[in-house]
Amino acid sequence: MKIILTNEVSGLGAAGDVVEVKDGYARNYLVPRGFAIRWTKGGEKDVEQIRRARKIREIATIEQANEIKSQLEGLRVGLKVRAGEQGRLFGSVTPADIADAIKASGGPDVDKRRVEVGSPIKSLGAHQVAIRLHADVTATVDVDVAAA
């Protein structure tokens, strides 16, 4: 099935790319989650708009990505959340929470879609989070989760 990606999908492509995938993968995973839309002649017009939006958001060069990486890796991010007595969180820390905490700590503005949390953060303490700045550049940020 031919689809148009609306978000970046690891191993498949970036937003605005037209790709061919198995019918079930598109029908059961990509389209319902909003990662893609079905390709049509009318949808082809949306591709250019999606690409323009991606170009505005993306980091253009590796040098720019390395500069942002150096800012992020020198940053210590603190995050206050509600937690129980044993240090377990009520819920988990989301990529949006981390992106907001980075901004509040004086770091650069990071898109929440670039924050990659390996396993869900559900406990207090220090955690490491990867931020994919460019295809070749990934920054690691230390996040201190504390009780509010």
Automatic annotation (TrEMBL):
Q: Which GO terms describe its cellular component?
A: ribosome
Keywords (A to Z) from UniProt:
Ribonucleoprotein, Ribosomal protein, RNA-binding, rRNA-binding
Q: Name one Pfam family in it.
A: Ribosomal_L9_N
**Start and end residues of each Ribosomal protein L9 domain:** 13-40
Task: Establish whether keyword Signal is in the entry.
Answer: no
Q: Which domain of life is it from?
A: Bacteria
Q: Which InterPro entries match?
A: Ribosomal_bL9, Ribosomal_bL9/RNase_H1_N, Ribosomal_bL9_bac/chp, Ribosomal_bL9_C, Ribosomal_bL9_C_sf, Ribosomal_bL9_N, Ribosomal_bL9_N_sf
UniProt record similarity statement: Belongs to the bacterial ribosomal protein bL9 family.
Q: Which NCBIfam families match?
A: L9 (TIGR00158)
Q: What does this protein do?
A: Binds to the 23S rRNA.
* HAMAP family for the chain: Ribosomal_bL9 (MF_00503)
**What is the official name of this protein in its record?**
Large ribosomal subunit protein bL9
Q: Which organism was this protein described from?
A: Streptomyces oryzae
Q: Which gene encodes it?
A: rplI
